[in-house]
Amino acid sequence: MIKILFVCHGNICRSTMAESVMAHLIQTTNLQTQISVSSAATSREEIGNPPHHGTVSKLRQVNIPVIPHRAVQMTRQDYEKYDYLIGMDGANIRNMLRILGGDPKKKVSKLLSFAGRGDDIADPWYTGNFDETYQDVTEGCQALLEHIQKSVNAR
Fold first, then answer.
1. Known catalytic residues?
2. pTM of this structure
3. In this structure, what CATH number is given to the domain that contains residue 24?
4. What is the pLDDT of residues 77-94, one digit of tens each?
5. Which of 4, 15, 65, 136 makes an SS bond possible with 121, Cβ 3.0 to 4.6 Å?
């Protein structure tokens, strides 16, 4: 089982959107016995809160089931638990590396790097633009899934 952890600042907007989008992609490609997803925050600000109403609204608009979720904080132990630890922006990556104490196995990546882009996924908490976030998250998740499928097939 390949395990993916999506990470953002509060775990209510971008990482929960990525978790739901990726779970949907995994379901539609019939890979749910091979890949699992979860999400977490680098901060403690939103711990226990459900996904942001803007994330829920956008996912419903595009007919993607929202994963039942309450915000949790990433821990150092997540490094051994997950194969991929995926941040949404540069600040997330810095905070993830601080929490994890480094990345000796090169498990930490920015989501859009799988799509050949170094861009950050803008935080809709600040921008209010859940459409743009959804487009970037979907592009990144599709590219990540293709990357995983290629690496599994190469084994």
1. 8, 14, 123
2. 0.97
3. 3.40.50.2300
4. 999 999 999 999 999 999
5. 136
